[in-house]
Amino acid sequence: MRAVQRGLREGGAMAAARDPPEVSLREATQRKLRRFSELRGKLVAPGEFWDIVAITAADEKQELAYNHQLSEKLKRKELPLGVQYHVFVDPAGAKIGNGGSTLCALQRLEKLYGDKWNSFIILLIHSGGYSQRLPNASALGKIFTALPLGNPIYQMLELKLAMYIDFPLHMNPGILVTCADDIELYSIGEFEFIRFDKPGFTALAHPSTLTIGTTHGVFVLDPFDDLKHRDLEYRSCHRFLHKPSIEKMYQFNAVCRPGIFCQQDFAAGDIADLKVDSDYVYTDSLFYMDHKSAKMLLAFYEKIGTLSCEIDAYGDFLQALGPGATVEYTRNTSNVVKEGSELVEMRQRIFHLLKGTSLNVVVLNNSKFYHIGTTEEYLFYFTSDNSLKSELGLQSITFSIFPDIPECSCKTSCIIQSILDSRCSVAPGSVVEYSRLGPDVSVGENCIISGSYILTKAALPAHSFVCSLSLKMNRCLKYSTMAFGVEDNLKKSVKTLSDIKLLQFFGVCFLSCLDVWNLKVTEELFSGNKTCLSLWTARIFPVCSSLSDSVTTSLKMLNAVKNKSAFSLNSYKLLSIEEMLIYKDVEDMITYREQIFLEISLKSNLI
Predict the structure, then answer these.
(1) What pLDDT digit, counting tens, does each position of 213-222 carry?
(2) Where in 127-247 does DSSP place strands (E)?
């Protein structure tokens, strides 16, 4: 689980005298959940909650999907009322990154509210990606990923709002910036609170291993006089490093030495990652900027006009802050997905704009940071990880009809808002969400089943990923089901048809799979950019007239690869995942989920 461990940053802290840190962390988390539950469907008082909750979207399709889901949540009173909920879409054209999305959101706020937003407390959630590493979140968005928690079930949006429930009360007007696929848990003293009231930027920091620091932002903090760390500390930051090497962490004095923490200060499960005798660093999660800083960025954006390169809100904003910031990072493009001709120049302009702005750090020594953005992390945290399960109160069966699942010490299956026949079987380590499974369905270990309807006899191989989408094609309702291995790399691409042998589908050479499906290697096999060929753009998924036929057909192509038996796809209209998202019918997918919800509600009331 090394990849998963890199996605988890955990920190231990000095516990209250009466409670070990893991207990205080769990109790603090449960208190926040209870408080949010009290606000669901209620009109919040001024200053009690966020004035505005804004979610970013990559394109108009995503914007439509997000607005539809927000509308449904408000109708069902699953969110606090009296709050302005917005979806801000990136402009068409070049990808602009979450930093560019932040600038666009500031502009939209200015247009919508004028000078009024000077006094607003705003939560900005970045959810504009296509979730290629967790494709069951691709169609309806990462921020609407279902969790095995709550009644009605929580999605990531509700969990974010719950975990940040205390922030607005102690925040000056400004914007809190966060991402859609991570969870921050923390515990502080009973009479303490996190304040976002200093000029400039304020970021949360979590103790982490040096290895984890190489994939996140790392704070170089000014010296600290106290002999022993507390759960909550307000620190000033000399500079911020973005995904630094371990060598650079030492070079810039970002590394903290062991000796201050003692073993009883760590929350349960932390010692495996952050050992008491190991050096450690403080890594980032969310950050806040005051209104003055936001206005400065907005003026800059309106001056430059259109962005034509990707800006990182963390790498490009935070690295410019603090007295120790230098311009050298602007020329380092090793962590950039796509290097545009204007990137270095744009970074330098942002650096000179923000240079001299303070970076305040709120150190949370009894905190945990979970990233749930890949299939591996998703399966691990929902079926195997006892820490997150204990802290959030995650359940094996959440708002579903299914016989009790026997618990085991290692892992269990996870069923979320689904209806399963009592005679079907779901192996440990698998997640089923928004689906109906009949009596003769068996699901192997470590599978993800989403939005599917399987009535006929079916055996899903271990490590399968199956996700069904409703489509609107030529004004007709159709269905297509993506099916592959949970460990397949959908983002890996090659430039030429001769290199597609380097791609793998369910651990098998993709070229061999095409032979099994009787498909020819031509440019028409791939959608989109013909020099970026991947499983994401491969036209291999059949379009069908019914949801159940769609799942059955895609399972046949999956099993054909596993069993090395021919199954011709020549007679089907085929789409890539990229195209499925273009044709997706959001309303029908939400209607299907609503039908399952109503049936479960009815049967629950009858029991």
Answers:
(1) 999 999 999 9
(2) 174-179, 182-186, 201-208, 217-221, 232-242
